[in-house]
From TrEMBL:
Superkingdom classification of source: Bacteria
Highest classification ranks of the organism: Bacteria, Bacillati, Actinomycetota, Actinomycetes, Kitasatosporales
The organism of origin for this protein: Streptomyces alboflavus
Protein name: Protein kinase
Amino acid sequence: MDALPDDHFRELTYLYTGDVSEVHRPDRGFSSDYAAVIHTANGRFFVKAMFNKPGGRLDSLIRERDINPFVQPVSPRLQWSVNGEGWVVLGFEAIDGRSASFDLDTPDLPRIVDTLNRLAEIDVPAVAQDWVETRWDRFATSTEEAELFRGEALLHTDINPSNIMLGAERTWLVDWSWPTRGAGFIDPALLVVQLIAAGHRSPEAESWAARCRAWEAADPKAIDAFAKATWRMYRRQALDSQDRWLREMEDAAQSWAEHRISRARRSA
């Protein structure tokens, strides 16, 4: 059994947890400073925490806290949160499920698409109105192209197998570290890149995105621009990293962008 990180953490959370009997750190990595499933006198929780230091990492945890009441149809429920001098801690319901598979023979894709469609039905709450999606702007070729990424959809923006959990009867989107307001096709587009990285060909990956209502309603030119911006983004990130997964994502994004460029030429 792993331990809680320190006595301050234990004191902050004790009101909500009572005595802790088991602590299990997940195998996969998280961007938070601490993450674990804890078994306590008051139940089982998944806790995420950041050191209470101003900056982007803490801001992402605050966003996850603030958006949670509005994404209950697709997200585990936040049961409690606490701010202390050293830590900010979120305590979520601990769900029973497994990470989604994006492999070629996966049976999970219909449930994944359904979850993205359920997310698309959620209106952008007031708390997120100012969270305009701009992260791809620097990789667009013009201000006009970047404007194609704007919209009125609530976005998760980190669609990957680890962030989609499948239970016996429910599917959840987890890790809402950076929700934004933008063009509705962006989350399905992120699914496309992930599927290509998992071995799907671009047309096959897009065939799954096409089952998302937001994709159907999108301007193909906006998707073209986003595909190329995503390729530029991963290419830039891979230059500064030795992480193999980033190079794999760069390759996937390049394959998709080249497919979109070829498609646009044929349609011209």
